[in-house]
Amino acid sequence: MGLRTPEQFLEGLRDGREVYYRGERVNSVPDHEELGVAARHAAIDFHLADDPKYRGMATRQQGTDLYSTYYHVPENAGDLQARSKLIETATALGATLVILVKEIGTDALFALQRVLARNKETEGLQRVRAFYRACREKDLALAVAQTDPKGDRSKRPCEQTDPDLYLRVVEKRSNGIVVRGAKVHTSCAPYVDEVIVLPSRSMAQGDEAWSVAFAVPVATPGLRLYASDFLHGADPFTRPISSRHKMIETLTVFDNVFVPWERVFFQGRQDLASAAALTFVEFHRFTAVSYKLPLLDALVGAAIAVARANGIERAGHVRDKLTWLGGYAETVRGLVELAAQRCGTEEGIAFPHVFTTNLAKWTFAREFHKALETVQDLAGGLLATGPSGADWESAEVRPVLDKYLVGAWPADRRMAILNLVGELTTRLYGGYQAVLAIHAEGSVEAEKLAMLRAYDPSRALGLAMRLAGLETS
Amino acid sequence: MGLRTPEQFLEGLRDGREVYYRGERVNSVPDHEELGVAARHAAIDFHLADDPKYRGMATRQQGTDLYSTYYHVPENAGDLQARSKLIETATALGATLVILVKEIGTDALFALQRVLARNKETEGLQRVRAFYRACREKDLALAVAQTDPKGDRSKRPCEQTDPDLYLRVVEKRSNGIVVRGAKVHTSCAPYVDEVIVLPSRSMAQGDEAWSVAFAVPVATPGLRLYASDFLHGADPFTRPISSRHKMIETLTVFDNVFVPWERVFFQGRQDLASAAALTFVEFHRFTAVSYKLPLLDALVGAAIAVARANGIERAGHVRDKLTWLGGYAETVRGLVELAAQRCGTEEGIAFPHVFTTNLAKWTFAREFHKALETVQDLAGGLLATGPSGADWESAEVRPVLDKYLVGAWPADRRMAILNLVGELTTRLYGGYQAVLAIHAEGSVEAEKLAMLRAYDPSRALGLAMRLAGLETS
Amino acid sequence: MGLRTPEQFLEGLRDGREVYYRGERVNSVPDHEELGVAARHAAIDFHLADDPKYRGMATRQQGTDLYSTYYHVPENAGDLQARSKLIETATALGATLVILVKEIGTDALFALQRVLARNKETEGLQRVRAFYRACREKDLALAVAQTDPKGDRSKRPCEQTDPDLYLRVVEKRSNGIVVRGAKVHTSCAPYVDEVIVLPSRSMAQGDEAWSVAFAVPVATPGLRLYASDFLHGADPFTRPISSRHKMIETLTVFDNVFVPWERVFFQGRQDLASAAALTFVEFHRFTAVSYKLPLLDALVGAAIAVARANGIERAGHVRDKLTWLGGYAETVRGLVELAAQRCGTEEGIAFPHVFTTNLAKWTFAREFHKALETVQDLAGGLLATGPSGADWESAEVRPVLDKYLVGAWPADRRMAILNLVGELTTRLYGGYQAVLAIHAEGSVEAEKLAMLRAYDPSRALGLAMRLAGLETS
Amino acid sequence: MGLRTPEQFLEGLRDGREVYYRGERVNSVPDHEELGVAARHAAIDFHLADDPKYRGMATRQQGTDLYSTYYHVPENAGDLQARSKLIETATALGATLVILVKEIGTDALFALQRVLARNKETEGLQRVRAFYRACREKDLALAVAQTDPKGDRSKRPCEQTDPDLYLRVVEKRSNGIVVRGAKVHTSCAPYVDEVIVLPSRSMAQGDEAWSVAFAVPVATPGLRLYASDFLHGADPFTRPISSRHKMIETLTVFDNVFVPWERVFFQGRQDLASAAALTFVEFHRFTAVSYKLPLLDALVGAAIAVARANGIERAGHVRDKLTWLGGYAETVRGLVELAAQRCGTEEGIAFPHVFTTNLAKWTFAREFHKALETVQDLAGGLLATGPSGADWESAEVRPVLDKYLVGAWPADRRMAILNLVGELTTRLYGGYQAVLAIHAEGSVEAEKLAMLRAYDPSRALGLAMRLAGLETS
Fold it and tell me: Which residues of C82-107 are buried (b: 16+ CB within 10 A; e: fewer)?
């Protein structure tokens, strides 16, 4: 055992898993035209551990164990910063697209350990720890399936007309449980080894059957993945990122899937379900803001470059827009840094500061569309009216483009940066990141709620009451 | 002569014009897989005049002449309102995509008449009027090629290294002129009859050769259109609009194109060039804000519908977002209405109120991305992780989707509205409209400049000075 | 009878009314140092009717009746526009401070007539009409007392611990009713002739005693006015507006006030109470947005002037800020214009378009603080560090100020405009207007609610559903 | 020598200094009704050093020297954090009003040392160090006079019609220089011991006479202070802060003031002038953002308290507004923390990270008015219509107020918090802080410029270029 090579990772995906893409069963994920791109993107994680340049950052040694840094349980601010830096670095190598095949899974495993230890759930804790050790030793890739389809949003799980609209336990057997239902938005599921399942909301009396957390290999009978094709297509001229890097989400269906007891972390406990949902996002939003940083850098960098390419860098309004963009990006970066520094510790596990993490995510999310607008503004109308890759390749058309699409930079350099801007802000990849900005790892509304809950009013309220001549009640 | 049928319009495009798409010469525009979609979209204009339901709005009778309302020279606020209403109606029938094959051309012809009459340019005026009458009588479709490639933005036309970076007169002959250069972002050029060429900026001493306005048929030797493929592709499930409706922009190259004198409206006059550029946008931005209205309605309507489909319509933050959206859309609509009402008149031609028109456009543009964000927010993550058309068609996959993608509405209705939102906000069509919002018909910065120039400070400044006890200087 | 002179109006205030200011009973309002300023500000209304320049706008002739335009029941858009124009003109003469001594009262009387006619309340309607005729004939000044103190905001009137926290009927007699309670924020009460009392919220079963509308003369026994001193003070150098113009709000206490039946418009009817509260603001918010226009003009004008005084008018960021300010102010103005044009009619009474009126008010309110910020930005730090009036008057200090406070304008002109800006944005008057922007005539939240309720979704929703291929449900 | 008591500090101000207030010469600053309030506010600094609770924070021991922490030259991030914490603590004790009598002076002295050491200006450096040591040993209070009156903003110092519009050297003598001119916005000058004079802008060839930095005691012949009365007045009921705490700015006139050479830090060197102006704000903006923190806390705390007092704390829109406020305040706080942590070092002196400091200040400034609006929104209209202190004291009026101004809190507690909100957002103190937010320690535009200059584009630009397949040029 120990660290796997990218090839070993890809080979492990050829296990008969049941994946559908565009209406058809996929034979082999790594060999599929689109899913293969995504799988190779995920393999960046394994390349990192293999590359002398990144090995120090991407791996940890504990005694004789050499393992992926993602699996390192954070014990202090330094560990959280190192984790954040690794996520950022890998995402930058992934051309602003997060890798996520170990990030999110370890987020879940750290959270489960905290919740079960906090509640003295010895047996569950042992199972989580055993599963964690196995994953770390085998260097596995993990997905987390959390968001339920939800059906009628105004109703709790047990009130839904179709009880399967939240994933649930339909049978308990001596050797395990049988679950049914589905999860939506499961990132990376087609090209990981294991899927960890978590509840997606707070549960109440009556929701016991839906209060369950467990893990299964992707190739488990009854587990079926319906992959979204959102980033489909591959013109490398106009899509310099998404032609080479993809992430795939699935509708993840559990059709009477059997889970042996040793992989069931808890079930029937709505208190643990609620706690697990909340505690998971404490880690996962920190992962999120860490992986947003290269996207922000790319937007700022592309804005500077396209302003130069267009020869407008010195104009007053352009400088104003660049300043705003830089200020926005650096505010997020600064808050990520602080979220690690201000970490708390529970059961020996360090976790990022909850208010600051949500503040970073909220800051990122609520200005992201303005950032897109700003970069589009600097780039110009060619974003929507420019040439295709086929034009560019055509011996007849290319000279015309070279002559007329020149700016302060020659046409080829200018088009390269314009196409990057187009991909980041206007085409599918831009739309994908825009939706992620608002909805992934918790919606903007969820972040605001978390901020309000985590805010400690004592200093501010104490000051105001004192200034008003009142006792703090 | 008189009004043409859609078929006659399409037939007229089979004239040997030189159009390139994805690196290849297009044989016949109306028969081309992608360009044909755009041409048929343009034909909506001719359908309207043919449809008893819209004929009254789409046509005008003057004596024995029956002609398209677009060609009606506005004489008063009512005419401008009728024009605006027609543009809005046609765009709504075009599924939020403007038709534009007569709107922009008549914007240019009205502007040229004003400028030449204002300057007592009798000969040029006669040429414009003759051309206008011919277009109206033959019911022609028109494009306007205005934006030059511009090269180094800090330099005027005559200062560019390559003088062709602004279109220019390279030869004067007894029977006409020869022009060379190119225009970018020319909407609809591949499927109109005539291209009107206007200067794109104010010109100064030395820019005489670049100060030229004229018209040529699309099938003129030396005129070559390089079409953008931005909206390429056609899954009607995820792209309910752009699979059926397209608009195409071109890089429009004039390679020593001969223009006979009767089609030259002016040349060599930088003062007329500057005036024509400014006066054209007085009409064209009014066209713009008129055709934006169905897009805004679609966003508001889709937001309401998707909130209902998701069952979240009563939540406080959802109501807040819907209120904002409605307020935004109705502000733009109100300002469009006022721009017509407050019109001025020059040389018998009514023109929309300049400040109000630009105010409407600026209001539209500076909040459009926030509107996209808001609708995405209400719709949810399925925008980026939902099924493809092939999934939806698959007998195996569809029941899974029907079961799990239900909300407050059944899955099929919910997915229909989600896909509309996706198309409008997240996929290529959303990106296309986002870029248009900022750059088409003048950038946001250009609109601000126009507002500042058109603002009459007398009432406000007079009041402030009186309140300060000062004389208005 | 007929129109009164300013002197007659002021004389009418010497009637023994019970007014308190800064803890002391006021002997005579028009002769009081501070309240007298407010009363004379109110008298602008009577000056207008007297001034040949404004008489045509400020008065109406009906048969032999000559009366104040404010009392003219609007029958169409033109009447509403004339009313709006009069309010705007009077407010500009009042140096951006609304007069309000007939505006708000007629808003209430028009609303009561609509509500009672709509509900076939013949007797109540007759009483309102008789009262209206008397006010019009005697040319009376009116206040409206609407907002109750409210106590615990989460409880309805009948649920309050102290039942007086909403004004209520405590006794019914053969000849009238006795009321007790109070109203807050009653504008102008100390210097009007009559106070009209309206319910401030929707009432429900159990709230009958609190569902009452009536009118009483200010000098009625038991009616006591506690005036706020917010705009107290009077340095005309630094306070060019509020040293000469004041409006006064009161806590208006009804301590077992007897109201004869002919002045009771309804009582005991929670349905009428709810309707009256809503219908009143339909008129009153239109009054509000009309009187905000001079304030906006003054801000825009002061911004232009101070930029010139400081010599920074040509700077890019200054032009940008002036454009924004002008765009903001003109959007509000345009929407006010539209609200009149789009009016509806009920029982022969024209009322402004509800959505558009609230849109105008919301637009005004949500950007007002940004407008203050923008003008402060252009003015500079002297707003907070400049000289006092005493400095300015000092023979020793003045030459120093004249020498050093020069800009692109001489010091005296520059200080005049800076002091205007200071008054409008930084000192008490600015704070007063800021609070009014958010809270007067309904809060921002109330306006949003009104917009949502008044928005007709049919066009937008119909389009979205059609584009999604769905039937509008 | 050593630390002074508050009394010693106040006594030191009775030295015949020439101060004018409201047009009159002030006899004794500490005994003056208004200036005395400001002087006693400044004395908080000396109380702190005297108070066992704060002594550890407020003083430093170096060998046998015990001195004020403000005078400690920062050597590392910890020193900067301690300085920031002290400024924050003192400002909170000052009821959100900064003390500033040592903060700004040491900002200047640290900057002068860096600039002169950087430029190997040995003699000037020795003079600065000697002056610094003397100030520290005598525990002096310092003002910094930097902003010149500027006259025509489009002209440099040497181009002004009146050369005195920038302070300048008018004569050089063997024993010193004579300076003439003025400075505006000089904070605290009437109640400090020494005034340090710095250039306010970058200077160029020809501006030598205006390129001067020096220090003089306040009681120097020819130095005259004209104090602004902006915060004049003192009702402790409605002005709980500014009735007890004031800061005073002056127009500071130098009428041929003689400065001996040992107090001249440089003169005639436009390069040093430019560097000093820039380097000073590197420290001073960090001081600024540190002292803004209690103001932000007070706004957040007052918002929470007033929402509770009004009983609206659970409403959705209220929670939303509180979340925004908290997020805003904590973003500024976080960035201040980071600015210290990321400090640089020059000549052994640590200075806060320039980009982050300006980012913090810009974040503070551009949302401050929105914060004021938000708190006003939560408080309600009583801010502008509430009772005066005299009402509150009146035995007749008070019971009425107690009865009717109750909310979820009794009237006295509710009015206390409402008056705090009023003072912070609506009355003079609110206006004062609003102007400071935009203009003090550099305008918003200046901060944006500093951000753009300090931004290191290499990471972002490098990423974008790599993603576009381009070499970083």
Answer: bbbbbbbbbbbbbbbbbbbbbbbbbb
pLDDT per position in chain A (473 positions), as tens?
Answer: 689 999 999 999 999 999 999 999 999 999 999 999 999 999 999 999 999 999 999 999 999 899 999 999 999 999 999 999 999 999 999 999 999 999 999 999 999 999 999 999 999 999 999 999 999 999 999 999 999 999 999 899 999 999 999 999 999 999 999 999 999 999 999 999 999 999 999 999 999 999 999 999 999 999 999 999 999 987 899 999 999 999 999 999 999 999 999 999 999 999 999 999 999 999 999 999 999 999 999 999 999 999 999 999 999 999 999 999 999 999 999 999 999 999 999 999 999 999 999 999 999 999 999 999 999 999 999 999 999 999 999 999 999 999 999 999 999 999 999 999 999 999 999 999 999 999 999 999 999 999 999 999 999 999 999 999 998 75
Q: Closest to C390 (Cβ–Cβ): which among D23, D397, D422? A: D23
Contact C279/C213 with Cβ under 8 angstroms? no
A185, two tokens: 């938005």
D5: phi then psi, degrees, rounded to nearest 5 = -85, 165
CB atoms closer than 10 angstroms to residue A97? 26
Q: Which helix (H) or strand (E) holds D213?
A: strand D212-217
- Specify whether the CB–CB gap between A321 and A312 falls below 8 A: no
- The answer to whether A244 faces chain D, any CB pair under 8 Å, is no
Token pair for residue A453? 């809950």
Interface of B with C in 316-335 (CB under 8 A): 319-320, 322-323, 326-327, 329-331, 334-335
| Residue in the structure block whose two tokens are 């309004």 | A317
Rounded to whole angstroms, how far apart are CA atoms C346 and C351?
8
Query: Residue A102 is encoded by which pair of tokens?
Result: 């170990």
D167 CB neighbours in chain C (<8 A) are none
Contact D384 C233 (CB under 8 A): no
Whether the Cβ atoms of residue D381 and residue C384 lie closer than 8 Å to each other: no
Q: Cα dihedral sign for B374, B380, B385, B388?
A: negative
List residues bridging with A196 in a β-sheet: A144, A215
C9 touches B at CB < 8 Å:
no
In the 8-state DSSP scheme, what is residue D462?
A: H
Q: What is the DSSP string of D257-294?
A: EEEEGGGEEEES-HHHHHHHHHHHHHHHHHHHHHHHHH
Chain A contact for D357 (CB, 8 A cutoff): no
3-class DSSP state of C275: helix
Tell me how many residue pairs between chain A and chain C have CB atoms under 8 A apart: 6
Chain B hits for A384, CB-CB cut-off 8 Å, are: 228, 230, 249, 431-432, 435-436, 439
Do D418 and D379 form a contact (C-beta atoms < 8 A)? yes
What is the DSSP track for A389-443? HHHHH-TTTHHHHHHHS-SSS-HHHHHHHHHHHHHHHTSHHHHHHHHHHHHTTS-
Closest CB from D304, D338, D462 relative to A457: D304
| Residues in C 82-141 with any Cβ partner in D closer than 8 A | none
Residue of C nearest to D149 (CA): C404
Nearest CB partner across the interface for B337, out of C241, C338, C459: C338
User: How wide is the angle at C-alpha B201 spanned by C-alphas A304 and B261, nearest 5°?
Assistant: 140
Give the C-alpha separation, B183 to C381, whole Å.
49
Spatial distance between the Cα atoms of A60 and A69, rounded to a whole number of angstroms? 5
3-class SS of residue A455: coil
